[in-house]
Amino acid sequence: MGLEAASTTLFTKQLGWMKEEVEVFVGEVREDLDGLGKHFYGRVLSYIRFLTNLNPHSIRPNMAGDLILVTGATGHLGYRAVVLALEAGYQVRAAVRSQAKAGTILATQSIKALAPGSKLDFIIVPDIIADGAYDDAVKDVKAILHIASPLPGSTEDFERDIITPAIKGTTNILKAAAKEPSVRRIVITSSVVAVIPWAEVINPKTDHVYTADKSFPDPSGPYEHSFEAYAAAKTKALNATKEFVKTEKPTFDVINVMPGFFVGKNELITNAKDVLSGTNAFAFGPVLGRVSAQPLWGSLQHVDDVAKVHVLSLSPKVEGNQDFGIQAGGTDGIVWDDSIEIVKRRFPEAVNDGRLPASGTQPTNKVVKYDTTRTEKVLGIKFQSYEDALVSVTEHYLELLEKESGKSEL
């Protein structure tokens, strides 16, 4: 490896220099070395090779303050990632489907309190599966939090509405980033159901402990319902990501985050009746008297922890090309109906006066063991409890009820 090749490897892949900058550097260094003899030239070349073999994160500057792209910014998780990224000092470009969606974010109390000004801007991406959907969005960004992805819903066309958007949205962001030399890292929201076989999720047969670094072949249909299709979509999107990194060898690295259901205050919700939207319904539904006959896997975590793992994963001190699992309650997860005891203990007045009926149920099926302790160790955090997550939703609900009651009395 000569001076040109060694310098290109070091300065483009390790330090993020542009090709033109490397060419200027090589020209200047060669002029300086010509008069110093072959021995000195060899020592310089050896030193460059040494630096090339270092962990890139040990020599890159901290990324805080850099421009990052957040997709899915108007979702429950995406919004929290925007807030935490701004709090961490990043400049944020939020991808939204319309200008009206941008207004929803700007109207929240957290964003108003941060007063980010030019540190927060928006780009309209109306269709994440369109070819080149993110090509403009990635311009000049150093990192990407790719959170946008379809959730299980009331559809009969699983391929069109769940599987294709999950895969194409992910490959679109990877392809766009590969064309933008400024991108150094992509953090992608995957799922626990991408690293645990669906048959085990719905009916665990063993006490095997799964971790986020597992991988499984693409599942094939037909799928019984949207949740199974969602699991297939997440598995296929994860496999597509790993295949892209393996075959394309991009200059950026990728970190995948594998949460289960996330629960917590959703600041984008401004009406009490809407608090049951999304995955908050599984935890808070029984508190409001909702009865479910369908057992649900108890893999849950506070939405703030999921957002925090995404933002912490941007740090150059964190190795790239790895996967992080998240789960409250340890390896065995949580029991959904613990929500009843929690609200009775934490909000006795609201239970007694009927604001929180605490009369419903959400059965928990046998839990698949999922070990996420490595995430806490590597990132230096401690996951919050089910109680923490539920309390944040409950406080928000009661706050909205009070505001609505005040309006009705005017």
TrEMBL record:
All copies of domain NAD-dependent epimerase/dehydratase, residue ranges: 68-318
Q: Which UniProt keywords apply?
A: Oxidoreductase
Among SUPFAM superfamilies, the record links this protein to:
NAD(P)-binding Rossmann-fold domains (SSF51735)
A family per Pfam: Epimerase
Q: Looking at the record's lineage, which domain of life comes first? A: Eukaryota
MF annotations from Gene Ontology: oxidoreductase activity, acting on the CH-OH group of donors, NAD or NADP as acceptor
Q: Which InterPro entries match?
A: Epimerase_deHydtase (IPR001509), NAD(P)-bd_dom_sf (IPR036291), NAD(P)_dehydrat-like (IPR050425)
Q: What family does this belong to? A: Belongs to the NAD(P)-dependent epimerase/dehydratase family. Dihydroflavonol-4-reductase subfamily.
In Swiss-Prot or TrEMBL terms, this protein is called NAD-dependent epimerase/dehydratase domain-containing protein
